[in-house]
Amino acid sequence: MKFENVEFKEQKCFGIEEHITAKKKKEGLINTMWMTLIESIDYKTAGDLYGVSRNFDMTTQEFDYSVCTGIDTVILKEFTKKEITIPGGKYAKFASKGIMNAESIEKFYTDVFTFTMVGGEITPDMERGINSFEIYDESYLGIENPESVYYLLVPIK
Asked: Which residues form a coiled coil (predicted)?
């Protein structure tokens, strides 16, 4: 699996954070969180958006998930928000290109985490308090665009 090693600078953000269970995931909570954030900010000038995963439990498959944007993003409609810090450091950066749907996202995550946990090419660093985070930058063209790219970064030692 292709990846690149990158140095990521700490990013201060604000957004929405929820505890995700299998039931909440199936009910579309993550999508609802993204829609709330996008409808509440000046999306066209926001810059990068992030999806941050923490506290993943292998047994229950539950985790904490945040959708967030840079601290300087303009808010158009108030919402209940939380300050979030994405820790700086070394990360393995994986890219996914194509139309996004629940199945393609699940496959991408499964492939990345299978590779990182058993591939032996990188050593994950979970001591930073983060399992991974997604970046949606200028390469992201929307969920239905086959040319759209988003990134998944995993902290490494």
From this structure: none
